[in-house]
Design goal:
By secondary structure, the protein is mainly α. The protein has one domain. 71% of the residues lie in helices and 0% in strands. Helix 2 runs parallel beside helix 5 and helix 3 packs antiparallel against helix 7. It starts with 17 loop residues before the first helix and ends with a helix.
Length: 263
């Protein structure tokens, strides 16, 4: 009488997690903190720019054309968005493309950690830097120039979270379509200039002509600028602005997932 041989045990693919994943986050965090240039542009530059503008006397005077508000009041949300632009467009894509270019992501694909861990760590670190940058900007604006805190705090937080998700998705998409670090820098520079304009760095969205304002608010940073401004005034952000940010976040996340290459 013969007995059937037992079926070979199925080998399970290691699942990233535990100490290995924690080690990746710790290592990436250490490398992130060792880049003083990136830290300055994300955490320091937006607030520095706001302070320089705030030192202009006319920017601290109430303007009837702005409903009695001051120009510096408009620039605090803009500086918040500038920190997001720096993190998502100028800082994150070159890091991820350099990892791919040097074969780090390909080599990680043979380990239990998997390359997705590095991607997750970079997104988490740059997302946290965006939030810290925003808190610094809002705090300095309040203490130095008496800029009122957001009157609609839940609306402001929701707008911030949507824009953070959108900015990170944009950075991941740029990382996906750029084959090399040089390409990521070149593409990022073009997108950087466009996003600076649509966020209102050169001209606040609220002061743009109606047609231009309508066009700009169809972009993620233009919609975010309007949403944050409404929350600063105590109004709930318009749903169309929140919807635009949500659509951009979903679309860019899908594009990044579809086009991202590990090698």
């Amino acid at each position: 009488m013969t007995t059937a041989a037992p079926a070979p045990a199925r080998t399970r693919r290691p699942v990233p997690g535990g100490p290995a994943l924690a080690a990746v986050f710790k290592a990436e965090g250490r490398l992130f903190l060792r880049e003083p240039g990136s830290l300055f542009w994300i955490l320091g530059f937006p607030t520095t720019l706001m302070v320089i503008l705030g030192l202009i006397p006319s920017f601290r005077e109430a303007d009837p054309g702005l409903g009695g508000r001051r120009v510096i009041d408009l620039y605090v949300p803009i500086a918040v968005l500038l920190g997001m632009i720096m993190a998502s467009i100028q800082a994150m894509p070159p890091v991820l493309t350099s990892y791919r270019e040097r074969g780090i992501l390909r080599r990680l694909s043979t380990t239990p950690v998997r390359p997705l861990a590095i991607l997750g760590a970079q997104i988490a670190l740059h997302g946290a830097a965006m939030i810290v940058s925003a808190l610094i900007t809002i705090t300095v604006g309040k203490l130095a120039f008496g800029v009122a805190l957001p009157f609609s705090q839940p609306g402001y937080v929701l707008s911030m979270l949507l824009m953070t998700a959108c900015a990170l998705a944009l950075g991941a998409t740029l990382s996906a379509i750029a084959a090399t670090t040089k390409a990521a820098t070149a593409i990022g520079s073009v997108v950087f200039l466009l996003m600076m304009f649509t966020s209102g760095v050169w001209l606040p969205v609220q002061t743009m002509p109606d047609l231009l304002q309508t066009i700009v608010t169809l972009t993620p940073f233009g919609a975010a600028s309007q949403a944050l401004d409404h929350a600063m005034l105590g109004s709930w952000p318009e749903w169309r602005h929140l919807g635009i940010m949500a659509l951009w976040a979903a679309g860019l996340t899908g594009a990044a997932a579809r086009w991202f290459r590990w090698e």
